[in-house]
Amino acid sequence: MRTVHVVTHPEATHHVEGVVGGWYDSVLTAAGLRAASAAADALRAEVPADARAEVITSDLKRAAQTADAIAERLGVWPESDPRLREKSYGEAEGRPQEWLDRRFVPPPADGDRMNHHEGVPGAETRGQLAARIYSAMDDILARPAVHQVIVTHGFALTFVVAAWIGMPYGALGPVSFRAPSGSITVLHEDDFFHNRQVVRLGDMRHLA
């Protein structure tokens, strides 16, 4: 039996400054820190007090700050995994969003969306992002844990969930699971049928 809680980091400085995130190492705003604390309280209420939970996080500061709040509340040390980072936007990172918008080449409706280059030097393709997230999830799910918390980013969450349900690489081109900043997605696998469920996607009740 396994439950995985996937947290998308809450509001960070790049959100309010209107600049491109990606690997740009922004930090949580004051509102983001409050939201991280609320997520930590919500997870403490869901994870049994006598259970040990693992916290695995993207190494970018805004995710690491979120993970620190959660890990402290759960009484564990967070583990960092750079494979859980957001998609890289290359030269656009840290620049105004409109700079990226002028150069962005949207993917085709059909065809090879996974290897499509979006027109910005140094940016990852969708396929490169998917490959590293799937690699991270293979390692995370190989661990004999009952309760795991994964702290990642909004676009990266799509591939965390896709890896959880075993979606094949060839089906990833158009897939998108939407989860707001600061939300909690709950994944569960039972110990009889070993079915993998998406119990809640992008839950925001703890921020109400």
Descriptive notes:
33% of the residues lie in helices and 16% in strands. The chain is α/β, with parallel strands linked by helices and 208 residues long. A six-stranded mixed β-sheet has the order 3-2-4-1-5-6, sandwiched between helices.
Task: Write a short abstract of this structure.
By secondary structure, this protein is α/β, with parallel strands linked by helices. The protein has six helices and six strands. The protein has helices spanning 13-17, 30-46, 61-74, 97-103, 126-141, 156-164, and strands at 2-8, 53-57, 79-80, 147-152, 184-189, 196-203.
Largest sheet: 6 strands, mixed
| Helix-strand sequence | EHHEHEHHEHEE
Report the portion of residues in β strands: 15-25%
Roughly what percent helix?
Answer: 25-40%
| Broad shape | globular
Count the beta strands: 6
Q: Structural class of the helix and strand makeup?
A: alpha/beta
Mean pLDDT across all amino acids: 96
Radius of gyration, in Å, reads: 17 Å
> If helices are DSSP runs of H or I spanning 4 or more residues, what is the number of helices?
6
Unreliable runs: none
What is the CA-CA span between the terminal residues?
Answer: 30 Å
Strand order of the largest sheet: 3-2-4-1-5-6
